[in-house]
Design brief:
alpha+beta; N-terminal domain of MutM-like DNA repair proteins; four-stranded antiparallel beta sheet
Length: about 280
Amino acid sequence: MPELPEVETTRRGIAPHIQQRTIKRLVVRQPSLRWPVPESLAGLMKGKVVEAVERRAKYLLLHLRTAKRPVGTAILHLGMSGSLRIIAADEPPMIHDHVDIVLDNGQALRFTDPRRFGCLLWQGAKEDTHSLLASLGPEPLSEQFDGELLFQRSRGRKAAVKTFVMDNKNVVGVGNIYANEALFAAGIRPDRAAGAISRQRYLILADEIKKVLAKAIEQGGTTLRDFVGGDGKPGYFKQELKVYGRGGQLCLQCKAVLKEIRLGQRSTVFCSSCQR
């Protein structure tokens, strides 16, 4: 499933190609995604200029405007297997190519989603923040996120610390891969109760979350199953993984056997020697 670094890599890949371009038409071949594509969307997007491409958590936001004013935002989510590519507008679609945003320069932004867990929705410029975005916590690479915030929000919480940092209400975009890696780097067992972690250890964990995500973005994300970046190239962070996907193998730090458990129905790998 594309996580924050993969989505940010995609944003950086597509933004130069679609910003300040006019949308000629929206082609929806399969409207039945995680939520139905609004029937009105083609009319809302046609003739509008893509003013900017922003990321919020794992959502891509295409801010659209007319010559005079902003009109709204197209909200894209890649789901579990989605990808976006810049193609020639006349390139024939494959079976899982569900949506094309056709631009005025003969190119198109094509949304491919084999499992159809992604979405394409709309938020008008004068509407309240969309319900999918309204309750999101701070961005992990922003100044609003730090260890003190994690410490304060964790007080009295019995949930596992890994589950806690993966909760988008506490901090957005720390998915399964990067939660495993950050907790290993911080030396914290993922199954410890969030409320039992000290302030000092949360300061370290927040710093490691920032480092892991920043490095993953720099390397174009992690290539796992279906992910390909916006430029059509795979990410390379998989080569940096210390624990994720390595259950039963030797710890790269101490050579103990890495343990694999399930937390919140997610595969969780850790070193019982290095992580306490």
